[in-house]
Amino acid sequence: MTLPPQWIYEWPMITLKDLSTNQLQQIIALKEQIEALQAEIESITGTPENSPDTVRGPRKWRMSAEARAKIAAAQRTRWAKVKGTKVAKKKDGRSSPAFRAQMAAAARARWKKAKAAGKTTL
Predict the structure, then answer these.
(1) Are 66 and 55 in contact (CB under 8 A)?
(2) What digits encode the pLDDT tens for the residues 85-94?
(3) C-beta neighbour count of 64 within 10 angstroms
(4) How many CA atoms lie within 13 A of 63 on its CB side?
(5) Contact (CB, 8 A) for 80 and 87
(6) Confidence band (pLDDT; 50, 70, 90) for 9?
(7) What are the residue boundaries of the structural domains of the chain, listed by start?
């Protein structure tokens, strides 16, 4: 039998004063049985039931940056398919060989000028 949720709040609250001594003795006996069973579990497993390992909860799972990038690229592809556009390839981020050669030549020229002036640092 299931009761509507609003009935839960209408039930009277039972306190220890409302229970008979027989009911209190039954509660104490059940509590002692539970404690005995928990002690038995601890003796079998070797760890207490409320140890930090069991209380802490599940570990947080962290995704790597590479995995996030793959997921983002896949999502961009899906959206491009929906919109009917092409996916813009992400720029490589590396400099072209010609640009690197130009920068190296500029650095060599700076060092040549600095050494001619007798400097050991720029």
Answers:
(1) no
(2) 877 776 777 8
(3) 8
(4) 8
(5) yes
(6) low
(7) 19-56
